[in-house]
Write a structure and sequence with these properties.
CATH architecture of one domain: 2-Layer Sandwich
Number of strands: 31
Largest sheet: 7 strands, mixed
Strand content: 15-25%
Radius of gyration: 24 Å
Structural class: alpha/beta
Helix content: 25-40%
Number of helices: 19
Shape: globular
Distance between the termini: 38 Å
CATH topology of one domain: GMP Synthetase, Chain A, domain 3
CATH class of one domain: Alpha Beta
Strand order of the largest sheet: 5-4-17-16-18-19-20
CATH superfamily of one domain: ANL, C-terminal domain
Length: about 650
């Protein structure tokens, strides 16, 4: 483990952060040393005191807070936070907006095609108009409104209008196929469906209305389809029953003051969907208060997001990071939205955007950073990014080499926060820490208020050893439940089947002596040759340093009563998998890991399957090579790639 940090904040930087002020305030009031370590320990020991302080510090608006912050229960999932509270998510996100404020609330770019802004006045007005329209359609508390939408300002507006009424929002990105959308929305039966006429990707226009026509024909619950003219100003919607154009709604009425529906802390806000690669997607219901307070804690304390900051996360509306980013409005930050390919029309388009609009927070995926590294791009030489204080990465473990690349080629003075959590909690277990140094390959900290531990194979909590990521105490952003799971059986099976009354997240990790986190991959993808557990990320970190390898995936093949490691590699267009390249790969793995990490077979493939949010699906590949059916191929961004793993001759010997 490296002892030298890649970056450390100055005293002035530390003392300017919101975390520093929160830490000192809590240390004085609750009598513990003013250190982050002491703050974390207190935050997981005194859930009542900690979450009260977060509520106050973040300035949450509510018609009623109540005197109780945490109400324990015999079962983890039945515990409650702020059981007396009454509040509204949209009201908190719009607390910096009104019908007079002309400053920019949202900036939007689409590749090199579209650039536009929305003021706080326009944001508030359009939320008001859309909310009134939904009310005329009978939408009320608890009803579902769904979107098949690009990452547009209108998507944010539709969500805020929905949540202002106490209704429930769910969304997919437009690159989902018909069946992928139906697998999700058929379960929740939305009353309203929003869509765009199409979307752009790599400069090409993709029509969506034909798909929507088929989707609506199989969703009898839908009362109206609202169509946003994105690729054309006035799309033809004659083929859609009960359809109306967004612009028609917005131009019909005069905006008025919003009336926000009071909600309980655990009333449904969002329905998020699991990837669905191992069965029908789970419909995970997240609550109003839990989502809000968790996101505010993460934005303000771990991300140091401030009023008038400019917050960007490269995401689609099918990934939880979209919901996470939008909550930054409650901090008074400006949302920086982007739709389309992150590397079109040129590889550094996102840095042009960051430079032009003075980003303070830049979020992306580990895969994007790795792809930049592979291109040899050095934005630091062409972009100053002078206001950028934090770069965040998630989606998969960020390799140590990618950490180094960020500081060598993107920006020297920046807090690089590798963060990790998931759709299951619509937030994070591992986060950034703007008052602490950054070390290569290591997430800086466990989230405040999140009692994260690592259990070994016997269920004992360990430090500086690999094991299962668990959370031993409840937290506000635990799901309210699963849709259509009245007895909570699916919920219990998903998170509590492994350890009684302890959240089991399914990540293979290690807590370091510095109290940081190393992630080694998903537990269900862990390799087990000779009974020794190996995280796939350990192999990827080595292999993908080799210039001819663009991407790799490792799976375990059942072989002669044991498991052997098979490595598939996607190479650069002109590269070939020669014996010399195989030897180079094996040597790189052997020198930097252990002999057990070295694959027995290395096989070149043209592509590697991944989810819509860019995550490699090891389980689908493992099932394919063992001739087992892969469920819900339509959930993959590139399902055709599975054909490369069928009947591979090298796997028969």
């Amino acid at each position: 483990m490296t002892k030298t940090p890649l970056w450390a904040p100055s005293k002035a930087q530390i003392q300017s952060t919101q975390l520093w002020h929160f830490l000192n305030d809590c240390a004085e009031q609750f009598h513990f040393p003013p250190t982050y370590e002491a703050l974390y320990d207190w935050s997981v020991q005194d859930l009542e005191g900690f979450w009260h302080k977060v509520w106050e510090f973040c300035g949450i608006i509510a018609s009623k807070k109540g005197s109780v912050a945490y109400k324990a229960a015999p079962r983890f999932q039945e515990s409650q936070f702020f059981p007396e509270a009454r509040l509204n998510y949209a009201e908190n996100l719009l607390k910096y907006s009104d019908l007079k404020r002309t400053e920019t609330a949202i900036t939007f770019w689409c590749e090199g095609l579209i650039k536009r802004t929305l003021s706080h006045k326009e944001l508030y007005a359009q939320v008001s108009l859309m909310a009134r329209h939904l009310q005329t359609l009978g939408i009320k508390k608890g009803d579902r409104v769904a979107g098949v939408l690009p990452n547009l300002p209108e998507t944010v507006i539709a969500m805020l209008a929905t949540s202002s009424l106490g209704a429930v929002w769910a969304s997919c990105s437009p690159d989902f196929g018909v069946q992928g959308v139906l697998d999700r929305f058929e379960q929740i039966q939305p009353k309203i469906l929003l869509t765009a006429d199409g979307y752009f990707y790599k400069g090409k226009t993709h029509d969506k209305l034909k798909d929507v026509q088929e989707i609506v024909s199989k969703l009898p619950s839908v009362r109206q389809v609202i169509v946003i003219g994105y690729t054309t100003p006035q799309p033809n919607i004659d083929s859609l029953e009960n359809a109306i154009l967004w612009d028609q709604i917005i131009s019909t009425h005069t905006p008025t003051l919003l009336e926000f529906t009071d909600c309980a802390f655990d009333d449904p806000l969002f329905i998020m969907f699991s990837s669905g690669t191992t069965g029908q997607p789970k419909c995970i219901v997240h609550g109003v208060g839990g989502t809000l307070i968790q996101h505010l804690k993460e934005h303000k304390l771990h991300g140091d997001v401030r009023v008038n900051d400019r917050v960007f996360y490269f995401t689609t509306c099918g990934w939880m990071m979209w919901n996470w980013q939008v909550s930054a409005l409650a901090c008074g930050a400006q949302l920086m939205l982007y739709d389309g390919s992150p590397m079109h029309p040129k590889a550094d388009i996102l840095f042009d955007y960051a430079e032009s609009e003075n980003f303070t927070f830049f979020g992306t995926s580990a895969k994007f950073i790795d792809a930049l590294h592979k291109t040899g791009l050095e934005p630091k030489k062409t972009h100053t990014l002078k206001n950028l204080r934090m770069i965040a990465s998630t989606g998969s473990p960020l390799a140590p080499e990618s950490f180094q690349y960020v500081y060598n080629s993107l920006k020297t003075d920046v807090c690089l926060a590798s963060i990790s959590g998931g759709t299951d909690i619509i937030s994070c277990f591992g986060l950034g820490n703007p008052i602490a140094p950054v070390f290569a390959g290591e997430l800086q900290t466990r989230g405040l208020g999140m009692a994260v531990e690592v259990f070994d194979e016997t269920g004992v909590s360990v430090l500086n050893r690999r094991g299962e990521l668990v959370c031993t105490k409840p937290f506000p952003a635990k799901p309210v439940g699963f849709w259509n799971d009245p007895k909570g059986l699916k919920y219990h099976k998903a998170y509590f089947a492994s350890y009684e009354n302890i959240w089991h997240h399914g990540d293979f990790v290690e807590i370091t002596p510095r109290q940081g986190l190393f992630f080694y991959g998903r537990s269900d993808a862990v390799l087990n040759p000779g009974g020794v557990r190996i995280g796939t990320a350990e192999i990827y970190r080595q292999v993908e340093q080799i210039s001819d390898v663009l991407e790799s995936v490792a799976v375990g093949q059942e072989w002669k009563g044991d498991i052997r490691v098979i490595l598939f590699v996607k190479l650069r267009p002109q590269a070939t998998l020669s014996e010399d390249l195989k030897k180079e790969i094996c040597k790189k793995i052997l020198v930097n890991t252990t002999p057990r990490h070295v694959p027995e077979k290395i096989i070149a493939v043209a592509d590697i399957p991944r989810t819509m949010s860019g995550k490699i699906v090891e389980l689908a590949i493992r099932d394919t090579i063992h001739k087992k059916p892969v469920k819900n191929k339509n959930t993959l961004a590139n399902p055709e790639s599975l054909s490369f793993f069928e009947n591979v001759p090298d796997l028969a010997s």
